[in-house]
Structures are given as C-alpha cells and as structure tokens.
Design a protein that fits this description.
binds pyridoxal-5'-phosphate, three-stranded antiparallel β-sheet, globular, about 400 residues, 10 helices, alpha/beta, 12 strands, seven-stranded mixed β-sheet
Length: about 400
C-alpha cells in the first residue's frame, strides 16, 4: 500500500513498529499462560502487569484500577451493564445521543430489561450542556455516560464538569475515551471519573484489546463468566501479546502526546487554511476548536449528497478518508444520527467527510492531499455555481486553531 495516504485514524491506526517489536516475543517463544505458576506463566504475568501499569499511567490511575477487556466495545458494555447489575432497585442511565454504538446499543439492551434511559441533547457543534445533565439527574440515576471525544465529529466534551455534577449527585460517571485516550490528557486523580473505556487500536496499538479504568471502590458486576481473570470482571485467558502491545502503545502516546498534538493541530490548520481558498463551499462540522488534534470533519455545501462519492474518488486517488464512522459504513447512504441530533437536516446529515490524521502522517502527504481534494470536489458537479448556491448560507470554514 506504499504511496497511499492514510487519513482515517479514527477508524483505526497502524501499529507503531515499537509496539510490534514488544509484542513479537509473546507471539513466538514467550507463549505462557499468565495464570500458570511456572516460569513461562510468570513471564507472561510479568508482561501483563507491566502493561497494566503503563495503561494506568496514561490516565494517572493505579495499576489495580485497570481491567483489560477484549475491545473498547466490551469496556463500554462492562461499564454500563456492570454498573446497572451491581445495584439494586430501579435504575436510570443518562447518556448522549452522539455516543458510539457500543454505548447506544448497550443502552437499548438495558432499556429492554426495564432500565430507564435519558439521552441528553447536544448543540449544533455536538456539545452536551451541564445544565441539561443537572436537569436530567434523578434519585435512581445509577450511571452517566458521556464520551470524552466524538469519533465522528471530533468534539471534546466538558467531561470534568459533567463528572463533578454527577459525582455530587451520587451517581457513577463513565466516559468512553476510546477516541480521546492518548490524544488529550485524561487524569483520573484530578477529575472524578469512575469508569473510563480505552481501546489500543486507536493509539497505534493492536486491535482486539481494550481496557476499563474502574475507580477503587466502584462496584461492577461481570458480564463475562469463567476462570476469574481480571479480578473476575473479565474472565478469559489473557491475550498477552495484545496486552503487552497496548502497554507500550499507551506509554508512547503519553510521552509524545503534547508534541504530537501540536504537530497534528498544525497539519489540520494547514488543511483548513488552504481549503478556505481552494474549496470555499467547505465547512467544519463539530466544534471548531474543542476538537481532537488530528480530527477534521468537513461538509461541502450543496454537495452533501455526494460525500460518499467523494470518499470513493479520494480512495481511487490513493487517499483513505471516510464518510462517517467505520462502524456506520454499512449504512453510508443514510443520514448520520449524530448530525441529525446536532440539528442538521437529513440532506446535510449525509454529507460528512472525516479526515483524521495520525502519527506517521507527514506535511508532504497533507500537501499532496491539498492538491488532490480541490480537483475532485470541483469534478463532483462541475456545473454548480457556488456563489449563488443557497446552501452557502451555512457555516463556512473557520479556523480550527485554539
Ligand atoms: N467507542 C468509540 C468512541 C469508538 O470510536 C469505538 C471504535 O470506533 C469504540 C468505542 C469501539 O472500540 P473497539 O473498536 O475497540 O471495539
């Protein structure tokens, strides 16, 4: 795939070669079961515990507050179902309508068993308002779950504020930090987060391994039953290679976070700056500044219905971006539920092109992309006169720099 430009890091990221190097021994000679007492088993256990400490440090948590799961999806399921099942009496869960399916579908499942669910409104930039959370909290609210940052529009939520309100009320606060983890600082000692979901493949680690931070003292019921691994919260023989890879990926992300965030923001800002001149109908979707560093969601006024086509043409030209999130790829022709809840009409809610930059992207790639994209957009419907397009009344490109 050399020569291609990969700008779809919200879907998944390439494995960092440093991570691969750390994983390889556990896919070959160091094959022990981390529960075995012999030397092979002890070596595997040591790798798991090293990784647990590395993942914990990313969140400023203690190592024994990290539970490894099979994915970010499973961490989300364990947080919500585990919190509800650990309690007694009627349960109420508060979440946002722009969450990943791992939260929304889990809430649907809980609702079928009698749990009341409230979806907080979001504004046109995808932000949850703390006043709405205050109004929604009830005596029986068991858990509030709001994502740290959106996979689709990149908006970063005011998690600290929402967590404080929730904690004062006496409910648990969970955040799905699958997109935010390793990209923006998350500190569980400074912020009263009870549960935090992470996934290694979003931070240049392997697929099929996630983690749930569970604050000491928080009661969860398991959703997987078996041999009692991971403090009986996630039974299954540990995937040692993936866990070791997650640990190193978390450590690299933590050490490089600040410099990398600045680099990615600058690259993103370059894209926005150039497109403002070359593609005047482009507009930013999501919050212009409160967004993940490498994340840019764009709409093209008047061409929203052609977003899927544009993504295909970019692919043919050697650039991987996405129209919506990878999880919704099977429903690409449908308006995005996230954009609909942000107040977009059904036409514009179909028109998102997501460009998400990552560790190995270079300025040369951005420059090449900026040569390709305007040509492809112009070719989509060449007869259109942008200056008279009624859709131009919508938002235009604004700076995404802080
Ligand atoms: N939560 C969010 C916000 C995501 O973006 C994703 C994956 O795209 C998930 C959860 C699911 O994580 P995983 O792919 O590890 O199951």
């Amino acid at each position: 795939m050399s020569g291609r430009i990969y700008f779809d890091h919200s879907a998944t990221t390439p494995l960092d070669p440093r991570v691969l190097e750390d994983m390889l021994p556990f896919l070959a000679d160091s094959f022990g079961n981390a529960s075995s007492q012999h030397a092979e088993g002890r070596k595997a256990r040591e790798a798991v515990e090293t990784a647990r400490a590395q993942v914990a440090t990313l969140l400023n948590a203690d190592a024994n507050e990290i539970i490894f799961t099979g994915s970010g999806t499973e961490a989300d399921n364990l947080a919500l179902i585990g919190a509800v099942r650990a309690g007694v009496g009627p349960a109420h869960v508060i979440t946002s309508p722009i969450e990943h399916a791992a939260i929304l579908k889990t809430c649907e499942h809980l609702e079928e068993s009698g749990v009341k669910i409230t979806h907080l409104p979001v504004d046109s930039e995808g932000l949850v308002d703390s006043l709405d959370l205050e109004a929604a909290l009830r005596p029986e609210t068991r858990i509030v779950s709001v994502m740290a940052a959106s996979n689709l529009v990149g908006t970063i939520q005011p998690i600290a504020e929402l967590a404080e309100i929730t904690t004062e009320h006496g409910a648990l606060f969970h955040t799905d930090a699958v997109q935010a983890g390793g990209k923006i600082p998350i500190d569980v000692k400074r912020t009263p987060l009870d549960l935090v979901s992470l996934s290694a493949h979003k931070l240049h680690g392997p697929k099929g391994i996630g983690a749930l931070f569970v604050r000491r003292g928080v009661e969860l019921a398991p959703i997987v039953f078996g041999g009692g691994q991971e403090r009986s919260l996630r039974s299954a023989t540990e995937n040692v290679a993936a866990i070791a890879g997650f640990g190193v990926a978390a450590e690299i992300a933590r050490k490089e976070m600040e410099a990398e965030a600045t680099r990615l923001r600058n690259l993103r800002e370059k894209i926005v700056g150039v497109l403002a001149d070359t593609v005047p109908q482009a507009y930013v979707i999501g919050h212009p500044q409160k967004r993940l560093p490498g994340h840019l969601s764009l709409g093209f006024a008047g061409q929203e219905a052609l977003a899927g086509r544009l993504v295909q043409l970019l692919d043919r030209a050697g650039v991987a971006v996405s129209a919506g999130s990878a999880c919704n790829a099977h429903h690409a022709d449908k308006p995005s539920h996230v954009l609909l809840t942000m107040g977009y009409d059904s036409e514009r809610a179909r028109g998102l092109v997501r460009i998400t930059l990552g560790r190995f992207n270079t300025e040369a790639e951005v420059d090449r992309f900026l040569e390709i994209l305007p040509r492809l957009v112009a070719d989509l419907n060449p007869d259109m006169d942008w200056t008279t397009s009624p859709q131009l009344a919508g938002p235009v490109l604004v700076s995404t720099s802080a």
